[in-house]
Amino acid sequence: MSKEPVLVVMAAGIGSRYGEGIKQLAHVGPSGEAIIDYSVYDAIEAGFKKVIFIIRHDIEEDFRQIVGNHLEGHIDIQYAFQELDDLPEGFALPEDRRKPWGTGQAILACRDLLDGPFAVINADDYYGKECYRLVYDYLKNGLAPGHLGMVSFVIKNTLSDHGTVTRGICKVDPSGSLTGVEETKEIRRCEDGVIRGIYNGNTVTIGDDDLVSMNLWGLGAEFMDELKTRFVKFLSEVPEGDVKSEYLLPIIVDDMLHEGKACVDVMTSHDTWFGITYAEDKPLVTDYIHEYVRRGIYPEKLF
Fold first, then answer.
1. Residue 133 confidence (pLDDT)
2. Using 50, 70 and 90 to split pLDDT, how confident is the model at 25?
3. What average pLDDT does the segment 241-268 reach?
4. Which of 67, 130, 199, 296 has a CB 3.0–4.6 Å from the CB of 184, allowing a cystine?
5. Minimal CA–CA distance to 215: which of 137, 150, 128?
6. Cα 129 from Cα 144, distance rounded (Å)
7. Residue-range domains of the chain with CATH
8. Helix/strand/coil (H, E, C) string of the chain?
9. CB 114 within 8 A of CB 220
């Protein structure tokens, strides 16, 4: 049996001013809960006993006060810090760089805190309960050498009623292994009821039950070594003057997949995913959560 799985929550993108104006911490629950509270609650139910929040130093005090403090006593909490100048030896922060380095660098911020399997989620996405059970069991049972896990979602359960979305459409072979991800933009359900999007400049039709990646991964400790090595390569190839390139987790996994260095095992959740992409999404998210509370899926007050 492997070591106890850890939940890693990418929250460094949360702004430094808190309140209803910050979408990641918008109150959606009846007792003022944010989406992140429901994620941690579901993870605890699934078996996770430790969470690492990836944040920035400039929001640490506020984050602890608003999120971390009320979770203490329910789950072991640690903090990792994603900072622009946290770079490998030999590299310096470009003077004009203001944009974060991306999700790959975010996970690297946990390098001294992780020595076993871990799951990765976004702080501002509601994934439902099923995915945490799937990824916890997958990690607890031990990853086969060279294997990574990904929880996919059915695309019809991830759309917004208030605008188009971008999704990575998963291509999966009969054995359940990922063969590729097609980054598809401007996805929406059209007036004729059909889901369509733009892939490589062309309009494509997407089946209601096609699978998509929502950046929920199950990874082993050895993945950190790949991240370190590939970050050096990424930085060495950033063109001079480019201050926007990002080191992104899905691209890293896709590169490993096509290099034959990883096999990605796809699990599928049939829960409804939602997030606050547009301001108009918040009332819908709130309605979903309140309905879940009414049905007894969640208590009136989580913690």
1. 98
2. confident
3. 92
4. 199
5. 150
6. 25
7. 6-145+212-246+270-294 (3.90.550.10)
8. CCCCCEEEEECCCCCCCCCCCCHHHCCCCCCCCCHHHHHHHHHHHHCCCEEEEEECHHHHHHHHHHHHHHHCCCCEEEEEECCCCCCCCCCCCCCCCCCCCCHHHHHHCCCCCCCCCEEEEECCEECCCHHHHHHHHHHHCCCCCCEEEEEEEEHHHCCCCCCCEEEEEEEECCCCEEEEEEEEEEEEECCCCCEEEEECCEEEEECCCCEEEEEEEEECCCHHHHHHHHHHHHHHHCCCCCCCCCCCHHHHHHHHHHCCCCEEEEEEECCCCEECCCCCHHHHHHHHHHHHHHCCCCCCCCC
9. no
Q: What is the Cα–Cα distance from 297 to 275, expressed in whole angstroms?
A: 18
Q: What is the pLDDT of residues 135-181, one digit of tens each?
A: 999 999 999 899 999 999 999 999 988 889 999 899 999 999 999 88
pTM to 2 decimal places: 0.92
pLDDT for 204 beyond 90: yes
**What is the token pair recorded at 264?**
């990605």
Q: According to the model, what pLDDT value does residue 17 have?
A: 46
Q: From CA 193, how far away is CA 58, in angstroms rounded?
A: 45
Q: Which residues contact 274 (CB under 8 A, 6 or more apart)?
A: 125, 126, 158, 281, 284, 285, 288
- Per-residue pLDDT reduced to its tens digit, 41-55: 999 999 999 999 999
Diameter over CA atoms, the chain: 55
